[in-house]
């Protein structure tokens, strides 16, 4: 942080305590807007997955924790405007220890909110993409993020010794090099942003999806890219902050960018859980279709989504069998809240049946379906035929003929005697 020279001080305008120039509107606009939407999207996610689908997982609760930590960071940014944030140095009314106390708290809560968001996304990726490479990536990144968070909290807590030296300039203190520390932390945080928010781009985009779903993916990754850009902007303004003597004027932009980065990350992480609610509100645009067809390697996979009058949900299924029989048919049924009609299926001549559950509710016959699991049943016809001894017959499995030998019965009687 630079120290103003006598020439700089002489060039300052007279203090304006009545109507000073302020960056407060920027802080309020970006912080309130993103905070409200982060809370809203988290609530919609819990309503969609907890009420409509009854399928809350650990990733949902961790995202809720991220939202809880993000709220005080956003609130303290707005409250700090009363204590000098966003004002020029010549318009300050003196030292602002309350502002620096809130800044001290924000320095520890911000990495916790961001890290919990990324950890939640890693758990979501583990559920969606079961490949070995994805597991290695998610476990490795989760360990890195958690270790990084612990290191950040430790550094921010003991950046000055004694701790009160952060907000009390009169205390005899020893502080670490904040410039290097904060920029390194911001750089690693931005790196993890790129890794987490852009990791699923390739596997998702390579899927053969309808246009509406592709547009939805573009929106999700656009929000994720904005988070990454915000992280880079924060690094830039940290450099400006440490080169300037007008600290609280520059810090206003840093706080606004922190709110955007933190809250947009939560919004991006919650976008996938918004669809069930949108399907209820706008069934024409977001509800899954009742019948759809997927052609894969010349075979037809008939899928049955949930009715728009029930709890909306959609599942993307691959082929349910590796059989090469060209005439084999599959039927996919979603039975959350519903029952399978065995007689109707058999009457239609279907040979293989599957249903999925996102809630772990009972499937057909009272049998439990694992959460997010798929149960596959195969119907096998067994026929019996009685023939007289000595008559000819032909097996379905081969072309050979066989004769029921009546001498066999005589041999069995001899053994019994």
From TrEMBL:
Residue ranges of the Rhodopsin domain? 44-278
Topology in the lipid bilayer: Multi-pass membrane protein
Keywords from UniProt, A to Z, are: Membrane, Transmembrane, Transmembrane helix
A GO cellular component term found in this entry reads:
membrane
Predominant localisation class: membrane
Q: Where in the cell is it found?
A: Membrane
Biased-composition ranges, Acidic residues, are 398-409
Composition bias of kind Basic and acidic residues appears in 385-397
Parts of the chain that traverse the membrane = 26-48, 60-81, 108-129, 136-158, 178-199, 215-237, 249-274
Q: Where is this region: Disordered?
A: 385-417
Q: Which family does it belong to?
A: Belongs to the SAT4 family.
The name under which this protein is listed is Rhodopsin domain-containing protein
């Amino acid at each position: 942080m630079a120290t103003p020279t006598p020439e700089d001080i002489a060039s300052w305008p007279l203090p304006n305590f009545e109507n000073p120039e302020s960056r407060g509107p920027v802080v309020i606009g970006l912080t309130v807007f993103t905070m409200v939407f982060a809370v809203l999207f988290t609530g919609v996610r819990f309503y969609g997955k907890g009420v409509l689908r009854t399928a809350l997982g650990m990733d949902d609760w961790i995202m809720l924790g991220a939202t809880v930590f993000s709220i005080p960071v956003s609130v303290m940014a707005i409250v700090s405007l009363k204590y000098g944030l966003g004002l020029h140095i010549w318009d300050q009314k003196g030292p602002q220890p309350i502002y620096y106390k809130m800044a001290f708290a924000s320095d520890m809560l911000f990495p916790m909110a961001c890290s919990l968001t990324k950890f939640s996304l890693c758990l979501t990726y583990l559920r969606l993409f079961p490949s070995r490479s994805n597991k290695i990536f998610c476990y490795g990144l989760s360990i890195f993020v958690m270790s990084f968070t612990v290191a950040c909290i430790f550094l921010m807590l003991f950046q000055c010794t004694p701790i009160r030296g952060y907000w009390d300039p009169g205390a005899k203190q020893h502080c670490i090099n904040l410039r290097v520390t904060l920029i390194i932390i911001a750089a690693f945080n931005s790196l993890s942003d790129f890794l987490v928010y852009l990791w699923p781009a390739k596997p998702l985009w390579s899927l053969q999806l309808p246009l509406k779903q592709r547009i939805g993916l573009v929106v999700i990754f656009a929000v994720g890219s904005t988070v990454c850009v915000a992280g880079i902007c924060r690094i830039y303004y940290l450099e400006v902050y440490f080169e300037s003597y007008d600290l609280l004027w520059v810090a206003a932009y840093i706080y606004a960018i922190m709110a955007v980065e933190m809250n947009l990350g939560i919004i991006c992480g919650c976008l996938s859980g918004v669809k069930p609610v949108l399907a209820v509100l706008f069934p024409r645009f977001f509800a899954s279709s009742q019948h759809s067809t997927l052609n894969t390697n010349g075979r037809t996979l008939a899928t049955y989504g949930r009715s728009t009058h029930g709890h909306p949900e959609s599942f993307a299924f691959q082929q349910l069998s590796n059989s090469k029989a060209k005439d084999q048919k599959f039927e996919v049924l979603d039975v959350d809240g519903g029952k399978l009609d065995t007689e109707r299926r058999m009457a239609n001549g279907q040979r293989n049946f599957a249903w999925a559950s996102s809630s772990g509710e009972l499937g057909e016959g009272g049998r439990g379906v694992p959460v997010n699991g798929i149960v596959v049943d195969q119907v096998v016809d067994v026929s019996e035929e009685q023939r007289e001894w000595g008559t000819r017959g032909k097996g379905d499995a081969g072309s050979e003929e066989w004769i029921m030998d009546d001498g066999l019965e005589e041999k069995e009687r001899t053994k019994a005697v």
